[in-house]
Design goal:
The chain has one domain. The longest helix is centred in the N-terminal third of the chain and has 20 residues. It has two helices and twelve strands, in the order αβββββαβββββββ. Strands 6-5-4-3-2-1-12-11-10-9-8-7 form a twelve-stranded antiparallel sheet, with helices on both faces. By secondary structure, the protein is mainly β. The protein is globular. This is Lipoprotein.
């Protein structure tokens, strides 16, 4: 309870400051799209490339994780004393009742994540290069979502589905205006991570070309996150890349081999309500 009383004043101060910078002079089309009832569908695959004893890739495999829906269900939501929050809901098509929620403020200075619920565990966890098992690794990666502020989770048995968790410090997902070279601190706790707009790229999904900003991550661990953002249609593509991952047997701490991993989520469709 003491932690909650510590967090609430910080969030209250943050929301008050953001009201000041939301002057209305920053054009809405230069922000991440947050129109009510906008719905995105993504397909995610995992690519595994296995190293042989000489350090060369000798085989590979692909796993299709299926489709995920992400939808804006409220643009004036309230949590406790906080109001005018944007609510994103996300779920796998195969498990539509298992819904992850994230609340945002889309301010003139950037897109901020304030709170979340049911991310797969009660705490966000740091991704590890040495994992307990191959199956555990797959489950961890499957818990990474496609909402703007992606998350990490553990197994479904550790979920706290009804609990709303506040970030100790609001998580800065995007900075405005988006432009090449922009850099900002996204996270301080539970680990430190910066993000940078590296370049612009044209990404083709389902036969349609999207002009995107490529946003990379820089942090304290060797996991690469690349987001490709279009300011009209939102997140177009997400990559999670890890090299030299050790395969650990449940009965031995010694690596059984190494592989290169990539998780790729591509936009399948975006549905926007008629204006």
């Amino acid at each position: 309870m003491s932690k909650l009383f510590f967090i609430l004043p910080i969030l209250f101060l943050f929301i008050a400051c953001e009201k000041v910078v939301n002057s209305g002079n920053f054009p809405i089309y230069s922000k991440y799209p947050t129109q009510l009832n906008t719905e995105w569908e993504y397909n995610t695959i995992m690519l595994f490339e296995y190293y042989d004893s000489t350090g060369n890739i000798d085989s590979s495999s692909v796993m299709d994780l299926g489709h995920t829906i992400c939808k804006i269900t409220n643009i004036n939501d309230s949590i406790g004393n906080f109001s005018k929050l944007i609510l994103f809901e996300e779920y796998d098509v195969a498990t539509p009742t298992n819904i992850h929620k994230t609340w945002y403020v889309n301010a003139d200075s950037g897109l901020y994540s304030i709170a979340y619920s049911n991310p797969g565990s009660s705490q966000i966890v740091i991704p590890k290069q040495h994992l307990k098992s191959f199956e555990y690794f797959i489950q961890t990666v499957k818990s990474i979502g496609v909402a703007p502020a992606f998350y990490f989770g553990l197994s479904n048995s550790n979920q706290v589905s009804d609990s709303i968790q506040f970030y100790t410090y609001p998580r800065k997902v995007l900075v405005y205006p988006l432009k090449i070279g922009s850099r900002w601190i996204e996270l301080i706790e539970p680990f430190y991570r910066e993000r940078i707009v590296r370049t612009t790229e044209i990404i083709n999904c389902n036969g349609k070309d999207y002009n995107t900003y490529k946003i990379e991550s820089e942090g304290d661990f060797k996991v690469i996150f690349n987001d490709y953002i279009n300011l009209t249609d939102g997140l177009i593509k997400r990559e999670i890349l890890i090299d030299s991952v050790a395969i650990i047997s449940p009965i031995s701490p010694d690596p059984q081999g190494y592989y290169k991993f990539g998780s790729i989520s591509n936009l399948v469709r975006v549905l926007k309500p008629e204006r």
